[in-house]
Amino acid sequence: MALLRIQGGSVIDGQITASSAKNSVINLIAAALLADGVVTLSNVPHLRDVSTMIELLSNMGVIVVVNDRMELEIHPNTISSLKAPYELVKTMRASFNVLGPLIARYGEAEVSLPGGCAIGTRPVDQHLKGLRALGADIAMHEGYVKGSVQGRLRGARVVFDFSTVGGTEHLMMAAALAEGVTLLENCAKEPEIIDLANFLNLLGADIRGAGTSQIRIEGAERLDGGAFEAVSDRIEVGTYLIAAAATGGRLEICNAVAEHNSALLEKLREAGAEILTNEGKISLDMQGQRPRAVNIVTGPYPAFPTDLQAQMMTLNCLAEGACSIQETIFENRFMHVPELARMGAEIQLQNNNSVALVKGVGELIGAPVMATDLRASASLVIAGIAASGETTVDRVYHIDRGYQQIEERLQRLGVDIKREAG
Ligand code: EPU
Q1: How far does the centroid of ligand 1 lie from the alpha carbon of residue 12, in Å?
Q2: What are 190-208's pLDDT values in tens digits?
Q3: Closest residue CA from atom 2 of ligand 1
Q4: Contact (Cβ atoms closer than 8 angstroms) between residue 285 and residue 308
Q5: What does DSSP assign to residue 160?
Q6: Residue 116: its pLDDT value, please?
Q7: Ligand 1 atom with minimal separation from the 124 CA
Q8: Measured between alpha carbons, how far is 214 from 184 in angstroms, rounded to an integer?
Q9: Which of 26, 76, 199, 385 has the highest CB neighbour number within 10 Å of its CB?
Q10: Which residues are part of the catalytic machinery?
Q11: Pocket around ligand 1 at a 6 A CB cut-off
């Protein structure tokens, strides 16, 4: 298995350009199934999750062409199978979101249930409740969800029990081709949801209110093809900013939307970073200082994102002072804690492992560590950069799901990091 070998002690200094958001792109690829025409997505990041999604569509017979400028050309009308197999869905839960588009467009689909996940059980009950409300007949059979509808899906009112990003996106897609008006209430408000609405509206859908708790969708009879570029990846942006702050460094990020990272920027300022934002750029300067500890409570957007919790924990491990980090979205998202402890971090888990009390230590010490999920692996890479001595991060395939060219980018920022075949 490939690993990353990091010689620690560097201070991040330089400039990078953010990629398009992984968590938007994978939904746009699912949404492309709704189109009756060719969909082109530009500036698509070279990531394992994107490849999985392409493989899933190809497996259904859909022609997907990728060119050397990382443009994806999707030909949804070439589809020949309406089945998403377990082997692919289990590797990436978001692929479950092809279910709604397939039922909406073709009247039936068979999609594997995604199963468990390292960070939590992650059920799909809200997705299924919504699809049923739109008139889909949903049945479970041998680990698969079989969905069907006579004629078209029908618009309905769906009230989510709690904020769900994937559930909101899934229902928006299905409702885009339903007959009549759908009202989604208690929706998630993440920027990727607005991005999906913009994409579907470009294809001819009528979606209003994305980014608020109520989304209104007037179903269309058909959607066209079209060309689109996804919004910048706020989690990639956040990860690099935290890495720079943790090492006392400086960083300028282009193609970044400051507003999408408001909660993080506030916390980084509190930690002592000087931050300037200006027309698609975010600059951070720590002026060589050690960060101050900052308390974190994760929550649905616009609160502090769970996808940056692990990275921020590493910063806090290095900080002056102590803090508490509360995870409210996933029940098992502290798997980086024992790995950070192997590098000398002082962290105590409390409240049924939903709160971490972190006492900043002057220095982390390099060690062999193991990545357990995508964002946990990013936190270990940051720890390795800041630590003294050598760190190896094993199971690096986790990081390749969501960070393109991570070692090349970090090398350009002054980090001594290389990939080795395991
Ligand atoms: N949930 C349910 N039932 C449902 C749906 C969700 O119980 O039907 C629960 C989940 O188990 C979780 C909470 O509700 O405890 C929130 O889940 P949500 O549906 O909002 O998350 P998601 O759509 O599965 C997306 C991102 C995650 C990110 C979360 C929260 C994508 C592809 N994934 O997941 O990203 O952590 O929103 O912001 O958009 C990552 O990029 O590393 C990642 C895990």
Answers
A1: 31
A2: 999 999 999 999 999 999 9
A3: 123
A4: no
A5: -
A6: 66
A7: 8
A8: 6
A9: 385
A10: 117
A11: 23, 26, 93-94, 120, 122-127, 164-167, 188, 305-307, 329-330, 374-375, 402
Report which of 281, 348, 345 is spatially closest to residue 315, judged by C-alpha positions: 345
What is the C-alpha separation between 49 and 33, in angstroms, rounded? 17
| Neighbouring-strand partners of residue 304 | 298
Nearest atom in ligand 1 to 24's CA: 39
Residue 316 identity: N
Token pair for 400? 């390749």
Token output for 378? 């990013």
Q: What single-letter amino acid sits at 192?
A: E
389 φψ region: left (φ > 0), alpha (ψ -120 to 50), beta (else): left
- Calculate how far, in angstroms, residue 307's C-alpha sits from the geometric centre of ligand 1: 10
Percent of the chain with pLDDT strictly greater than 90: 95
DSSP secondary structure code for residue 308 in this structure = G
Alpha helical stretches, state H, 247-318: 262-270, 309-318
DSSP codes, 34-58? GBSS-EEEES----HHHHHHHHHHH
3-state secondary structure (DSSP) of residue 325: strand
Structural tokens at position 257: 């939307």
Q: What sign does the dihedral 216-218-220-223 (CA atoms) show?
A: negative
pLDDT at 355: 98
**Rounded Cα gap, residues 415 and 12, in angstroms:** 7
- What is the C-alpha to C-alpha distance for residues 216 and 209, in angstroms, rounded to an integer? 6
Q: What is the structure's pLDDT at 118?
A: 83
If you write DSSP's letter for every residue of 330-395 in order, what string do you get? -TT--THHHHHHHTT-EEEEETTTTEEEEE--S--B--EEE--SHHHHHHHHHHHHHSBSEEEEE-
Whose alpha carbon is nearest atom 4 of ligand 1?
Answer: 124
CA 329 to ligand 1 centroid distance, Å:
8
CA separation for the pair 323, 291 (Å, rounded):
12
Asked whether 33 and 79 are in contact (CB, 8 A), the reply is: yes
Cis peptide before 302 (omega within 30 of 0): yes
Reported as a single tens digit per residue, the pLDDT across 158-199 is 999 999 999 999 999 999 999 999 999 999 999 999 999 999
Query: Between the CA of residue 172 and those of 57, 178, 207, 216, 344, what are the distances in Å?
Result: 20, 10, 8, 9, 46
Give the pLDDT confidence score for residue 308 in this predicted structure.
98
